[in-house]
Amino acid sequence: MSSPSSTSLPTKRKKATTTQSSKSICGICFDSVTVSKIFTNTSCNHPFCTRCISKYVKLQRKDKVVKLYCPDPQCSLKLKPQHLQSILPKELIVEWESAIYESSISLRKKIYCPYKNCSVMLVNDGEEVVTSCECPSCHRLFCAQCKVPWHADMSCRRFQKSTKGQHEKELDEKFIELAKRKKWQKCPKCSMHVQRNGGCEHISCRCGCNFCYKCGKDWIHGHICKYSR
Predict the structure, then answer these.
(1) Is residue 72 within 8 Å of 80, Cβ to Cβ?
(2) 47 within 8 A of 26, measured Cβ to Cβ
(3) d(Cα 5, Cα 2) in Å, to the nearest integer?
(4) Which of 76, 106, 40, 42 is nearest to 222 (CA)?
(5) What is the pLDDT of residues 93-110, one digit of tens each?
């Protein structure tokens, strides 16, 4: 007696699959980082982990650097706030954008409060000549033409010819002589004298300009001073 033939049904086997998230090497710390934590500038595609690029921008802004470039030593493309707004704190983005705006204002429109404990920058948007001006920060009056505290009792011409005005001029001349003797460097943009007390040659002026203290040239990405050779 024959037993009934039996046919075995094919069994479906699941293929073992392993999903490995793709990684990239950070150009600053050289760690292997998942792509989700990598920042790339769409113009150059140099990869940096979000932690390193955030730290880089924070340190640059701490040094008052306005024009930031890709950290890759062979790259000269600029970084812009909108490139990093998804990974940087909002207050840092706003502060950086404000610094960029301030640096774009022409020097002739900039006015600085003459009081030493203030020195806030103002902007003259109009074409008219501004004399009496109230600082919006310290709320004290000053003369925008003479760049001194407000001389209410006389005109700018009279003040500049007065003993006080001549004294201010003499002080300016003595300061210039002192600056030459001490070899203080001048900002190439606003001509403000700067005295370096220490640190590297990279100077950030209050006008937003970055320059080399040794040669006086604009400090750009990868700057090598000719006097350091």
Answers:
(1) no
(2) yes
(3) 9
(4) 76
(5) 999 998 888 777 776 777
Task: Give the chain's mean pLDDT.
Answer: 79
Q: What is the DSSP letter of 49?
A: E
Calculated CA dihedral for residues 129, 124, 114, 143, nearest 10 degrees: 20
Nearest to 125 by CA among 109, 106, 142, 108: 109
Longest dimension (CA), the chain: 136
Cβ-proximal residues to 151 (8 Å cutoff; 6+ apart), any chain: 143, 159, 164
Report which of 115, 108, 114, 113 is spatially closest to residue 129, judged by C-alpha positions.
108
pTM for this model (two decimals): 0.53
Of the CA atoms within 13 Å of residue 161, those in its CB half-sphere come to: 5
Query: What single-letter amino acid sits at 147?
Result: K
Bridge partners, residue 24, by sequence:
33
